[in-house]
Every structure is written in C-alpha cells, then in structure tokens.
Design brief:
Helix content: 25-40%
Oligomer: single chain
Largest sheet: 6 strands, mixed
CATH class: Alpha Beta
CATH architecture: 3-Layer(aba) Sandwich
CATH superfamily: Phosphoglycerate mutase-like
Radius of gyration: 15 Å
Number of helices: 5
Structural class: alpha/beta
Strand order of the largest sheet: 3-2-4-1-5-6
C-alpha cells in the first residue's frame, strides 16, 4: 500500500496579498498545525517524503509537521507547482515518479488545488478543506507507478475545529 497525505497550509495572515507568496501563519495557524501533527504522531504516522509549496505559510506548516513527526526539515522537497496550482494529471505524474522506498508521502499546498486533488484521487469526497485540513489517501498498489486518479481510498481527514 502507498499513502499520500495532502495538507492545506494552516491559517495565514489575512493581509499582504500584494506579496501573497510571503504571507505567514497566524498564531492560530501555528497552533492548528501543531495540533494536527501531534495527532498524527499519536496515530504513529510517519513521513518518508515531504513535498511542499515554497510559499512561506506552506513551508511554515510543513516545518511544524516535520518537527512533530521527526522528519528532517532540511529534507523537505520544495515544488513551485504546488504554489502555482497543478492539475490532477500533473499530480499523478509526479506521484508515479516518487521513490519506491517511500510508503507515506506528505504534500503541503493551497486551495483550491488541494481540494481538487483529493476530490479527483478518490471515488467520493464531499467534505471541505479548511485551513490545515489533513487528508490521508490510501492506494492499494505495490508501486507508485500504479497510482491513478479515482484509485485512492479516503483513510481519514483531520480538521482543527474537529479536534
């Protein structure tokens, strides 16, 4: 089995849109990221690979998750296409090239892209993706090359307000 965990960045400051890329997290965003990643640690979920949008708020969220999950923050792979937006087809292409030794891959991005990815990677997803929403998708495959759109199964979704 291969697992992709898709995370929308935590709550960011509601100003600075003229420099959107550099907007950071609010105090609530930092607390939410800590809360969700601590819950993942309790669930014994580990990251084998972390890929994130290079935007400040997304990298800040990813670093908090990595610190709580014991993943080296220097190993976060930054991918600008997660900031610019990507299609499900592009995402599947990216996933199919992941190293086979990785079983669980975390992806940190932005709405609406993260919502559309989750929606298109499983057969049925009708939930919202509020900030710091974390969705685990399981693919019953042996190799990343066999991952496909609509081929995943929703394992769980964690949302800060629900905790």
């Amino acid at each position: 089995m291969k697992r992709v965990i898709i995370v929308r960045h935590a709550k960011s400051v509601p100003y600075g849109y003229d420099d959107d890329f550099n907007r950071d997290l609010t105090e609530r965003g930092v607390n939410d990221a800590d809360k969700i990643s601590s819950r993942l640690k309790e669930m014994r979920i580990n990251a084998d690979l972390v890929i994130a949008s290079p935007a400040t708020r997304t990298m800040h969220t990813a670093r908090i998750f990595c610190q709580n999950l014991g993943f080296d923050v220097k190993s976060i792979r930054q991918d600008p296409t997660f900031y610019e937006g990507m299609t499900t087809h592009d995402f599947v292409d990216l996933v199919q090239e992941l190293p086979e030794e990785a079983q669980t891959v975390f992806v940190f991005g932005h709405n609406p892209t993260v919502y559309y990815l989750v929606y298109n990677l499983v057969k049925y997803f009708n939930a919202d993706m509020p900030t710091c929403s974390t969705v685990a998708l399981d693919f019953e495959v042996q190799t990343w090359k066999d991952v496909s759109a609509r081929g995943g199964k929703l394992a769980f979704q964690l949302v800060p307000k629900g905790m």
